[in-house]
Design brief:
2 domains; 8 helices; elongated; membrane; transmembrane helix; transmembrane
Length: 163
Amino acid sequence: MQKMYGLLLVCVALVIYTTAISIGIAWFAFCFGTFLIGVILLLFAPLLLITPPMFVFSLGHAPMAYGMKLLVNSKQELWEGQLESLNKKIMEFDQERLDYYMTKFYHTHENRALFPEEWKECQSYNKAFFNTVFKRDKLYQKLNKNTPFISTAHGGGRNSKEL
């Protein structure tokens, strides 16, 4: 299924590339159809001649790159790359900020009413952190199906056999 999806993305990219080429030909024909406009554009704004086709052409790079990645890499390699990027993202979260929010808002309910803006910021920051941790845990479970995995409060996972 992954290979078919990759092939489909490569085909979409090729369609975008051919569309860009046809737009480029039509644009050049329009500009040089009236010779005066074409020469003026060529002399004073040469980038304007290639901007429309290049804009459409650049839209095909993302599906082509991802499609080739799906065709070349196995599902295991893709999951390992995603796990590595999620681990980097988890490390970017500020541990002191998470601890501060935890002690200030999650252990006392009065502060939630006193500081509503900071409480909203705390909720969004913690939600982003834990969503990343849960995604990482799901990927870890996919990669290591036989290993029971327990996620700790701050995102570090431990094997349950070590407990």
